[in-house]
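Hi R.,

Here's the input for the guanosine-5'-monophosphate complex you asked about:
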Amino acid sequence: MARRKKIYEGKAKILYEGPEPGTIVQYFKDDATAFNAEKKDVIDGKGVLNNRLSEFFMNGLNQIGVPTHFIRRLNMREQLVRNCEIVPLEIIVRNYAAGTMSKRLGIAEGTQLPRPIVEYCYKDDALGDPLVTEEHIAAFGWASQQDMEDILSLALRVNDFMSGVMMAVGIRLIDFKIEIGRVFDGDYQRLIVADEISPDSCRLWDIETGQKLDKDVFRRDLGNLTDAYSEVARRLGVLPQSNVTKPTLIN
Ligand code: 5GP
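And here is the predicted structure with guanosine-5'-monophosphate in place:
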């Protein structure tokens, strides 16, 4: 059988050439990394859960008219997505202080922010994805002024959608990271939400107990990561079956 072409392997996903031009197969691995890959582990079933959860969020965004790269899920670990040129920025939206913002500004984790705050980091593992300003982005040509307006608008729409969806199942969306891709429709460029949206890239706290249901469980050794992600999936009704931690179909 012909082996498909691997385009890229990252810390949590592998990208393969898709079946049609302009498409990519995105494979979700079980690998977990934190602190710029200084902490690493393989967590059984994480890829299956993130594939399902990212499908759920991206599908919802597509349905409300926020364009994403998501086309359809192919199997337990893979989804078909549109090929796009990734803007070299991590877009972070924060509703409550946590993580690096709390450290940088000395604000207690969990403090509600006066309004959502959007931050940009330059995507570069070797540099540890440093925080940058719109001045850097414009000067180095990573995105145009128009792109930045579109990116801000997409980020805030994703925040509204995600906050509402999570609130409905008793979870507070503390913050999240998205990536943005460029696609070309004829002569026109459009920006779409790309990569993944999952508990790997969000902070999710139970509204009642404050329990963390996201990758901080791994980063901070707070318990079993798949239990936390399974709980998010269960509340959202996206668990395929109760035995997701031991997937039988592995591609
Ligand atoms: P912080 O800057 O506090 O570390 O992260 C802010 C939010 O963005 C968190 O929800 C975190 O999970 C997400 N985030 C920031 N950088 C990355 C990254 O490189 N990979 C992933 N998956 N998420 C990130």
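One thing worth noting: Residues 90, 92, 98-101, 129, 175-177, 200-203, 215 surround guanosine-5'-monophosphate (CB under 6 Å).

Cheers,
M.
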